[in-house]
């Protein structure tokens, strides 16, 4: 009798609870290794890990303890990323098993190129000694024949050679070693010259030609690293802008301008007017700091907790894994600098589960792409875009974070109801209780949210972004001691090493975007674009906004969010401000469209990354993600017609606009998914769409009209099925 199982309901319930998994998500915090990324071993692993740790620690020290002169700090910031980038990322594919590495003549040619590269670096040292000894400037023939021309020739040759030089994944190839030396030589020259009165001569005929030579080599190095870490899209756009510098004088109409010589342009593009300007200012301060913060969160396994928390909170709802993807990707996306990177980190878990409960592969990938993209507009961090906006506009960061709140809620509400209505229409189930973690268990670790709470509290208490970010980073290490993943010295060093490698892509992208910003500011093309928008606004402001939307999306296609916004803010936002739009509204307008370019066909990086995981067609996935994220294409227009969406207005106005716009978003999702408390026909969908637009618009009369439409369709649906036979909905 003693072995007879207990049949009581209480005992069965306890048994079921015992089977409930502690966690589902594991490995969300693991570092994503790209296909062209090296995997070092032995002494090379120790060397590059040490370099990454030193690089991250340098920024923490410079930002908090021992600040450097601004230009010098930014030059070292870019140079360090170039050295790490060429160490970690190959210019060609790796040697496959059974293949032979590069031919011996390529290796010897690479080592031959190393000689003039080292000679250029030696000249930098000699120049420093000469200027330290009291010289006012360097002899032109030394700058040209002993430093500049050899540096440019070697940089170009090593870049081309690296495209065909195949090496094993565990070793750095000789061409990359040459490029590292060239990066040191270029940065070293800038550090020598920019710390003398010669810095004031940039952009004039009195500027030493060495500045132009170092800038040309530095630009080549930045473009090549950007190609390796972010693809060709941004590189091609940058080359088009560079071509415009010299072709512009021959172009007709508003595109023409007087022209700049090679020397004059390049002597100024590697200053705070271009590469060392706003984009690098942000990447060298706010972005690198929050990458370190994100790395500390990853080291303490907070990402796993975020996703498990989302499963516990939303997993049982119909279409549960899709709703988990929304919450988890929103939480992870705001601390992740790229939409595609967020898709890879969370989508590998959520997409298979969505397919398991009934979502087609196309929809599963599209939902993850739309949710991950939304993380870039989620305050308080907003994928670093908010920091660039604060730098460019001068608007306090806290104001930007508050203004982003209602639009972010509207976006995620749209994605949520799109998912919910699709699940209802297709009769999908949620996850069973024994398939998800127990909320009561996870709530005991809610202290893992403390670093983000501390960050928000510090910002609104008046601390600077740098100080708040540093406090949040330190708190992540402290809080980890309450969790199973305690951070000791090895874990902290691992987090710093992870931050150094994670930062390479965004720093390269920001420096490359700085080239475009430099072209815009030095040629005046931005002002001419503003005059074009002003002319369009004379016919219709809506037409001008639509044109600005198209340009923002076009500029952002294939680019990471930060670079997409930086370029759009330089080209489009000034034009919108000139036609009378408030700076905050203008910048949010272009920011939103730069973000959603990641899910806009035909070049939708986030959708393509999701399609790679789901196995669906990439173009079909991008079209579906465009549909799911449709609200993000409508809401920015409402910034103009209803500024209360950005917290500009009385409390009552903000509340009314927030509530009615949310109801409008629900109606929009219903119209797209053909479900509103039941299936609906095409004519009803059209009426519902009109009502949704009326409510999103934000006027009192339009709100009332939209509300009347929604209530009327709801009442009619309660009385008779408008879409044909009712279908059963599984719980």
Description:
By secondary structure, the protein is mostly helical. The chain folds into three domains: 54-230, no CATH class; 284-648, no CATH class; 649-718. 70% of the residues lie in helices and 0% in strands. It has 32 helices and no strands. It has helices at residues 9-19, 42-64, 70-88, 104-132, 140-164, 174-193, 209-230, 232-247, 262-269, 278-299, 302-314, 320-333, 339-356, 361-374, 385-393, 397-403, 405-426, 439-442, 450-460, 465-479, 489-523, 525-539, 541-556, 561-571, 573-578, 583-596, 605-614, 618-628, 631-641, 651-673, 682-697, 700-719. Helix 7 (209-230) packs antiparallel against helix 8, helix 11 packs antiparallel against helix 12 (320-333) and helix 23 (541-556) packs antiparallel against helix 24. The longest helix has 35 residues, at 489-523. The two termini are 40 Å apart. 54% of the residues are buried. Residues 1-18 and 721-731 have low confidence and may be disordered.
């Amino acid at each position: 009798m003693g072995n007879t199982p207990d049949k009581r309901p209480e005992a069965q319930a306890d048994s079921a609870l015992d089977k409930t998994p502690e966690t589902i998500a594991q490995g969300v915090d693991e570092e994503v290794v790209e296909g062209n990324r090296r995997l070092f071993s032995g002494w090379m692993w120790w060397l590059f890990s040490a370099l990454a740790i030193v690089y991250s620690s340098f920024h923490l020290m410079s930002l908090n303890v021992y600040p450097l002169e601004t230009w010098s700090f930014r030059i070292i910031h870019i140079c360090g990323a170039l050295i790490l980038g060429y160490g970690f990322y190959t210019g060609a594919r790796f040697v496959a098993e059974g293949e032979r590495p590069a031919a011996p003549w390529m290796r010897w040619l690479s080592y031959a190129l190393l000689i003039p590269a080292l000679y250029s670096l030696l000249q930098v040292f000699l120049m420093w000694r000469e200027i330290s000894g009291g010289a006012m400037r360097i002899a032109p023939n030394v700058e040209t024949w002993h430093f500049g021309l050899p540096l440019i020739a070697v940089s170009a040759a090593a870049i081309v050679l690296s495209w065909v030089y195949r090496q094993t994944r565990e070793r750095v190839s000789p061409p990359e070693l040459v490029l590292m030396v060239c990066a040191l030589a270029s940065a070293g020259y800038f550090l020598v010259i920019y710390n003398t009165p010669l810095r004031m001569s940039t952009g004039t005929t009195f500027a030493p030609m060495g500045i132009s030579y170092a800038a040309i080599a530095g630009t080549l190095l930045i473009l090549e690293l950007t190609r390796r870490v972010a693809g060709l899209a941004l590189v091609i756009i940058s080359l088009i802008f560079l071509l415009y510098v010299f072709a512009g004088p021959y172009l007709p109409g508003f595109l023409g301008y007087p022209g700049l010589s090679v020397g004059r342009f390049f002597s100024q593009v590697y200053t705070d007017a271009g590469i060392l300007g706003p984009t690098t200012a942000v990447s060298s301060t706010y972005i690198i700091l929050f990458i370190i913060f994100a790395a500390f969160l990853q080291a303490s396994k907070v990402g796993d907790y975020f996703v498990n928390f989302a499963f516990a909170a939303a997993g049982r709802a119909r279409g549960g894994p899709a709703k988990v993807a929304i919450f988890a990707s929103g939480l992870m996306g705001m601390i992740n600098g790229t939409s595609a990177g967020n898709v890879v980190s969370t989508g590998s878990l959520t997409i298979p589960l969505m397919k398991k409960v009934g979502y087609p592969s196309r929809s599963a990938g599209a939902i993850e792409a739309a949710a991950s993209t939304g993380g870039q507009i989620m305050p308080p961090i907003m994928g670093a875009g908010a920091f660039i906006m604060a730098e460019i506009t001068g608007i306090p960061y806290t104001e930007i974070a508050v203004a982003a709140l209602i639009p972010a809620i509207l976006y995620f509400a749209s994605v949520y109801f799109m998912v919910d209505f699709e699940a209802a229409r297709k009769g999908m189930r949620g996850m069973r209780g024994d398939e998800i973690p127990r909320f009561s268990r996870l709530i005991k670790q809610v202290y893992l949210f403390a670093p983000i709470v501390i960050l928000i509290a510090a910002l609104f208490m008046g601390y600077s972004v740098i100080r708040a970010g540093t406090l949040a980073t330190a708190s992540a290490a402290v809080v980890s001691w309450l969790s199973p993943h305690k951070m000791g010295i090895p874990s902290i060093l691992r987090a710093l090493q992870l931050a150094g490698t994670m930062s390479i892509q965004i720093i390269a992208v920001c420096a490359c975007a700085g080239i475009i910003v430099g072209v815009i500011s030095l040629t005046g093309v931005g002002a001419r674009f503003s005059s074009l928008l002003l002319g369009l606004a004379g016919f219709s402001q809506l037409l001008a906004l639509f044109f600005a939307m198209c340009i923002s999306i076009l500029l952002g296609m294939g680019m990471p969010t930060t670079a997409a916004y930086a370029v759009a803010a330089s080209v489009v936002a000034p034009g919108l401000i000139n036609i009378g739009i408030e700076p905050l509204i203008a910048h949010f307008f272009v920011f939103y469209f730069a973000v959603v370019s990641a899910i806009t066909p035909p070049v939708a990086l986030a959708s393509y990354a999701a399609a790679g995981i789901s196995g669906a067609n990439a173009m079909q996935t991008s079209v579906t993600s465009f549909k799911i994220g449709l609200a993000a294409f409508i809401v920015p227009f409402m910034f103009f017609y209803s500024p209360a969406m950005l917290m500009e207005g009385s409390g009552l106005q903000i509340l009314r606009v927030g509530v009615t716009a949310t109801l409008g978003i629900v109606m929009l999702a219903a119209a797209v998914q053909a479900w509103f408390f039941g299936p609906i026909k095409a004519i009803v969908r059209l009426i519902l769409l009109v009502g949704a637009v009326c409510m999103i618009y934000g006027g009192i009369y339009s709100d009332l009209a939209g509300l009347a439409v929604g209530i009327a369709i709801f009442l009619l649906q309660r009385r008779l099925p408008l879409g044909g036979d009712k279908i059963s909905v599984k719980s």
